[in-house]
Automatic annotation (TrEMBL):
The N-terminal region seems to be important for proper quaternary structure. The C-terminal region contains the substrate-binding site. The gene is pta. Residues 371-690 form the Phosphate acetyl/butaryl transferase domain. This is Phosphate acetyltransferase. It comes from the Bacteria. It comes from Algoriphagus marincola. It catalyses: acetyl-CoA + phosphate = acetyl phosphate + CoA.
Amino acid sequence: MTKAIYLTTTEPFSGKSIFALGLMNMLAAKTDRLAYFKPIITGNKRDKDRRLELLGKHFNLHQRYDEMYAFTRKNAFKEINKRNEAFLIDVIIEKFNSLKESADFIVVEGTDFSDVSTNVEFDGNISIAKNLGIPAAIILNCAHRTTSEIIDLAMASVNSYLSQEVQVLSLIANKVKPSKRDEILRRLKHILPKSILISAIPSHEQLSNPTMGEIMDSLGAKLLFGEQYLTNRVDQSVVGAMQLHNFLDRINDNTLVVTPGDRGDILIGSLQANISRNFGKIAGVIVSGGMHPEPSIVKLLEGLETIVPILQVDDGTFMVVTKVNEIRARIAPEDKEKIALAIRLFEEYVDEKALDDRMGSFSSEILTPRMFQYQIVKRAKSHKKHIVLPEGTDERILQAADMLLRQEVVELTLLGNREEIESMMGRLNISTDFDRINIVEPATSDRFEEYAQELYELRKAKGISLTTARDLMHDVSYYGTMMVYKGHADGMVSGAVHTTQHTIRPALQFVKTKPGVNTVSSVFFMCLPNRVSVFGDCAVVPNPTSEQLADIAISSAESALMFGIEPKVAMLSYSSGTSGAGEEVEKVRKATEIVKSRRPELKIEGPIQYDAAVDPIVGRQKLPDSEVAGQASVLIFPDLNTGNNTYKAVQRETGAIAIGPMLQGLNKPVNDLSRGCTVIDIFNTVVITAIQAQESAK
């Protein structure tokens, strides 16, 4: 049975996006059969509804845009004016029921209360929820309201729904003053029925204030420079109509500068202040009055390495500032920072378990990539670990670090020169608070000598001298690994710049392998369109023996289990079952027997071909009695050549996300990156390293 909930508000700009994003994110951990439905949309076929675009893109919903709504506002009110309310409701019910055929859960969003009587829309929302037969979650806009006004609004809203026999599942007091949150929660819980889940979400400046992209769209401004920084948030605006030294005194973080187009001094001063550590961040600049900067100023701007958005408008300075102050902030599909913050606020201030219980818990047997990624990020957050990133001066590392800290996934140490790292972060327009990042330069660190002495003691039997140990400790891979070994960090991720051998050699030398493990290997979590598979080994052991293959298979099965994937192990070869012979096939067959003798409870098949392992039809044809064929979740390749090329072919040809490689078998987690890794690759690898660290601590 398809489950659903109706999200409704009492007025515009109540902050539905926070609850919608958080709820969809929570549900995405359970099923990919999600649908979002807004019976009456604000936009039209040409100018799409913002929230439908946001949620459709962010959650990769399978619906077409026209399946996500029933009527535009214009068409809906045509029907109402013709007294065709019954037709309106019938079409909405029909659309809703058609979604139920392909969805496990439908989130339905009420109308937005703009350009029409609030009472009409409020009653309309009650009517739609009642006719769909689904419970409501009421979101209150508590900004600029006293506690008593909030209580009165909550009582009136809940009673209106209950009086029409619509179940109220949850009430969310949104945009409350942080200092009043506890009092508001207490009073709401006292006066409202116990069956209603009460939540209070505090106001947050980053969600309340617009971005440069929103300002550009609202003003119809022309973009001159800085397209990649349009997500910069604007917290205040300042008019640049005074002398430069007076203007600079008025710059704080996330300042929008509005200045006539002929004030080159203010324009250049703003950009210089933006890269200076002594001033706040400049969000962007608007040049007003229809004046374009002088050619010499434009030439100078074109040669700068870092530049904030510069917009041009025809309006005068005063009119621009007035219009900017009237702009309402929204969350755009490309604004990943705001999306992450909205989801984090939901997770922090809404009791997800209680909400799930009230909606009626459900789950899917399928593990989709989004479900997998949601689950591992949430798991990493549940018990934050400290991860060291030795390549602290790589741009991708810094961007990933910014994402990790904004989402509060882990604690971080970056290795490298502090001034160089801070300068690069400024150039990349990363505004993360430096106090939240531990930056260490190995050569000047307080622990340098301690680490060198430790390395000497550990390796002197191998002929290493204290001088050599000191030399090695200048190497960020050795320093970072020693942090993990000494317990000063819980795990390490490296390899964006360094080779695999450079990354893992120190770990092999003194972190060593777990008891009972003879082979260090690796796996990739391959996030395919409808499942997550584990590929091993694709990065470490070039030509494993049967014994090493067995080690890899057992370690990979344990890794799968650690991340919530039921291990069904396929030992891959160029033949299936007893159909083939030859040295390579026999190696795989022997490895399979070793695994069966060491782990008899493990579901394993081998030798088996790739298609027979993953395709149910081929699997039934070739190995009809196998409990692995056609449904393998862990695929073990016979050698590194096959594994590495296969994972890359699958990744490139299917668009799969490859998370890893994750090293297996070490006493403490140290993981390697590909030198071609993306920011998302780094983010995901840090997440799985944090989870490994959680498991190591048990």
